[in-house]
Amino acid sequence: MSKTVIPAPAVPVIPTSEGADFPVRRVYCIGRNFAAHAVEMGHDPNREPPFFFQKNPNNLDASGEFPYPPHSSDVHHEVELLVALKSGGTNISVESALDHVWGYGVCLDMTRRDLQGEAKKMGRPWEIGKAFERSGPVGPVHPVSDVGHPDQGRVSLTINGELRQDGDLNQMIWKVPEMISYLSEYFELAAGDVIMAGTPAGVNAVDRGDEMVATIEGVGTLTVKVV
């Protein structure tokens, strides 16, 4: 093993339902992948070429707590399907894309909406609103052998028992195989890559003390406390 000038950072991992951890290489997030969410964010819901942004692998957090971040007073919840890849490559066909999936989970794309909005107005990148510490609460990843390849099923999120987001996986504009195929045209995908598949309408602000319960039918439930 080669020497390093500083201690090598640990590889970020997320839990699986099988007990062993899933090591994370990259995190790709698709934007505006549900028509109703595109509308609520002020955009045309018609199918347009997909676009992606990234979180950092160590933004994913399975602690069950979300620390309210600094420099923001408008932090939003976004419940999403997480897709974990066991292999990758370039120019993957839609027909073979699901062969590269290890499993699926429930996650949240927490967003400093005020900072994201400022960045949009100035034509700047979104990372300050999207890729902050512990901005990706996540539950266990379930292998395909247990949950199959979910392409329909209710996607919901409650805050302190009140329903905020309510949609269905079948409402995704770009389906999982299409996302994998499209990404592989621009990036070399690999084992350990994670895709966050977009959120339905109903995104809104959270406050300290709130309890978020995110559920995807057939995949699982994730409970996170805002601290």
Give the SSE string. EEEHEEEEEEEHHEEHEEHEEE
Overall 3D shape: globular
* Count of domain modules: 1
- Specify Rg, calculated over alpha carbons: 17 Å
CATH architecture: Alpha-Beta Complex
Describe the model.
This protein is of the alpha+beta class and 227 residues long. It has one domain: Fumarylacetoacetate hydrolase, domain 2. It is built from five helices and 17 strands. The strands form five sheets. A six-stranded mixed sheet has the order 4-3-15-8-9-12. It has a five-stranded mixed sheet with strand order 6-17-16-13-14, with no helix packed on it. A two-stranded antiparallel sheet has the order 1-2. Strand 13 and strand 14 form a beta hairpin. It is globular. The model has no long low-confidence stretch (mean pLDDT 94). Keywords: Metal-binding. InterPro entries: Fumarylacetoacetase-like_C (IPR011234), Fumarylacetoacetase_C_sf (IPR036663). It comes from Roseicyclus marinus.
What does this entry show, briefly?
With 227 residues, this protein is of the alpha+beta class. It has helices spanning 35-40, 113-121, 127-130, 144-147, 176-186; strands spanning 13-15, 21-23, 26-30, 52-55, 60-61, 65-66, 75-76, 79-85, 101-108, 111-112, 136-137, 142-143, 154-159, 162-168, 193-196, 211-216, 220-226.
